[in-house]
Each structure stands twice: as C-alpha cells, then as structure tokens.
Amino acid sequence: MNIDVPTDLGPGRLVVSPAASARAVLWLGHGAGGGIDALDLAALADALPACGVTVVRYEQPWRVAGRKVAPRPAALDVGWLAAAPHVAEIAGGRPLVVGGRSAGARVACRTAESVGAAGVVCLAFPLHPPGKPERMRTDELLLPALPRLVLQGERDTFGSPDEVRTAIADAVGVRVAAVPGADHSMKVLKSSPVDATAVAQLVVDEVREFVESLV
Prior knowledge:
The protein is an alpha/beta fold and about 220 residues long.
C-alpha cells in the first residue's frame, strides 16, 4: 500500500508492508545515495510483517521527484516530519520504532522523541565522512534518550563498529552490532565468508529482536 504525503518540499511517499496482526510499527527512511529498495530496508519490509511488525518505508520528496542528490539535513527532517501524522494513524497506538539507513538514521535520531518513538534503529549510521574521523556526528546518535540499535558493517568507511562503540562508550541503552564483511551499503565481497542472504538475515534477526524488546 502506498500513501502520498504532501509536504512543503513536494510529495513524499509512504510504502506500507502491513502485518496481519501488528504488534508494532517500524518506520524507516532511506539514505542520501539510494532509495527504499536498499538491501537492508527491503529485507525488513519482506520479513517483519510475518513477525507481527508493520514496516513503513518513507521516500523523501527529493527521491519521489527523481532527483539524485539529497537536500540538506534540515530539509530531510521537514520531509520526514510531514509524514508523521500518517504514520501515527497507521500505528493506531501501537509502539512506533523509527529508523533508517545512513542519512535516514540521522533523521530518525534527530526526530525520534518528537514523533513519540519507542526506540531507534540505525542501519549503517554515518558516524563521519569517509577519511574524516575528525568530523564526528556522535551528538546525533546520542540525541534521543531512547533505546537504540546500531547495525554497522565491518568495512563501513563512514565508521566501523569499533569506532561507533568507542564514540558512544558511556552511552546507556545503545546496542552496536557488527555485520561481518559488510560495507556502508551492507554489501559484501565475493571472497567474504558470508553472502548477501546471510547479511539480510542478520539484519532481520537483530531488528526483530530489538523491536520485540520494546513491545
């Protein structure tokens, strides 16, 4: 089911994968370089409804319009928050978990408390630009006073799992899980001991357990 979302930046779009008997809703945003068909987002939308979790993926207005470059973070927040009333209606009082991949994870962290989220899922959180560890975004990851799950590829040039753990060493309520062999896109090399199917299953299992812990 698709729901068009009017915003000041043009229309966005919610793509809903409903659970027959939903216990929770997981609302996910995409990254700045791709859309809602990313490996991890698609895997969650395919698998979690059978576990009682409705998955709602949001296409930002820039993506719906066919543009290839994302706007600045403030505009991403505007587009995301415009969809919040629609997502709340879908949730119908059930626990709402927000999240996303890369830039979508940043948006979710910045807005989680304002939309009444119970927790945050960060897929490939961009801790810093590649090769620029001095430009940390730790403050965004620590912003919500909510349970957070961070799934980070071992080869992620935007921040490895160990870098994330070090950056948030004193934080409470944050679980950092490594994805073996995966890069920022959750893709693995042909020589990797795990394949794309295994990566997708790991993501699904980690997120399912996290959401279930909040229900």
